[in-house]
Write a structure and sequence with these properties.
Layout (H helix, E strand, L loop, with lengths): L15 H8 L5 E2 L11 H9 L12 H11 L6 E4 L1 H13 L5 E6 L4 H8 L3 E6 L18 E7 L11 H9 L4 E5 L17 E6 L12 E4 L5 H7 L7 H11 L2 H22 L4 E2 L6 E5 L4 H6 L3 E2 L1 E2 L8 E4 L3 H14 L1
Parallel strand pairs: 1-11, 3-4, 3-5, 5-6, 6-7
Antiparallel strand pairs: 2-8, 7-8, 9-10, 10-13, 12-13
Length: 341
């Protein structure tokens, strides 16, 4: 075992099957993993049903998918890479960049896998505490130095759902030689968008959330040109299956489905937020979930009543994250929450 590495297991949200079996409940609603409750495009489902080449390796260029992603994002095809979710892309970036003792700057609270990767790669974590509104503080520049190798900025942030000031991110990119990694997993749900580019900027997105392909694990990113050859050398061979590639292409060819899902989720997000204000302390969100503060033990009490939400202690904050589900799922959650408040 590497002596410098620190091992910490990522703990995912509980599954519906697990809770049904453990508690003997007939109805269980999962609102813990920020999935698209409406599923993926019917066109992607048709691809899934007709796929037969499970015995063949994928084409490692993923050219067709990268071209379709270029149409969707406006990014240059040649600068797009794909990986096993944003997690897989970030793992490759860590492999390329991080030597023992390098500093990785992470504003907290946030997605815990960033810290897990830093510890595995023997990096020094520089944790910058967010303000009361969970935005990155203006004094973040004081934490930059010659040892800063990587800065991770979720936009929107998970689990709090907020976005950052565009000016601050632009200044951050321009004030350092470190790689700034923008995690835009939830960007389709946000009214705010970033439109910046730089030789030290990576922007990563996913097909898991708005496009409803979480089980296929497809992430993608725009890299600086100089980093591409290093990324290809360090990336896992065949990180995305041909099935996942073709389903992603089909989903990208049916943007109306994705957009209709996003609109329904945003409408429910507003309704859920207004109802939560009557019961707990929710925070405004630009993602497909809402973070709220309430008494300790609430997640476990809701679990006993068939509602799975996420306790955010592992993210570094006291509070809870609830995914915006379908109207009936949100109603069931609110009904059980009212019983407990």
């Amino acid at each position: 075992m590497r002596k410098c590495a620190k091992f910490e297991e990522y703990i995912p949200g509980k599954s519906v099957e697990e809770i049904r079996e453990r508690l003997g409940l007939e109805k269980v609603v999962k609102l813990a993993s920020n999935e698209n409750p409406y599923g993926t495009s019917p066109k992607a489902i048709e691809v899934l049903k007709s796929f037969e080449d499970l015995h063949r390796y994928p084409n490692p260029e993923y050219r067709a998918l990268r071209e379709k992603l270029s149409e969707y994002t406006g990014w240059e095809t040649e600068r797009i890479v794909v990986g096993a979710g944003i997690d897989g892309i970030l793992e490759t970036v860590f492999k390329i960049l991080i030597d023992e003792g390098d500093e990785v700057l992470i504003p907290i609270p946030t997605f815990q896998y960033y810290r897990i990767l830093a510890r595995l790669h023997c990096a020094r974590e520089i944790l910058v505490s967010r303000g009361e509104d969970f935005k990155i503080p203006e004094n973040i520049f004081e934490f930059l130095n010659e040892k800063t190798k990587l800065i991770i900025v979720p936009f929107p942030n998970n689990p709090t759902g907020n976005v950052e000031k565009k000016r601050l991110i632009e200044e951050l990119v321009n004030s350092t030689r470190a790689i700034v990694f923008i995690d835009e997993a939830y960007i389709e749900f946000s009214d705010e968008k970033l439109e910046i580019d730089s030789d030290n900027l990576i922007v990563a997105r996913t097909m898991s959330k708005a496009f409803g392909l979480a089980n296929l694990r497809v992430g993608y990113a725009r890299l600086p040109r100089w980093l591409l050859k290093f990324y290809r050398s360090a990336s896992t061979p065949f990180p995305v299956s041909t099935l996942a590639e073709r389903c992603s292409i089909a989903a990208l060819e049916d943007l109306e489905w994705m957009k209709s899902c996003v609109e329904k989720i945003k409408k429910e997000r507003e309704r859920l937020f207004n109802e939560l204000k009557k019961l707990v302390n929710p925070f405004p969100s630009q993602a497909n979930f809402i973070f709220f503060k309430a008494r300790k033990g609430l997640a476990e009490d809701l679990l006993m009543r068939g509602v799975i939400i996420r306790d955010c202690q592992s993210f570094g904050v006291e509070g809870y994250r609830v995914t915006v589900g379908k109207p009936d799922e949100n109603d069931f959650f609110l009904e059980k929450l009212r019983e407990l408040t």
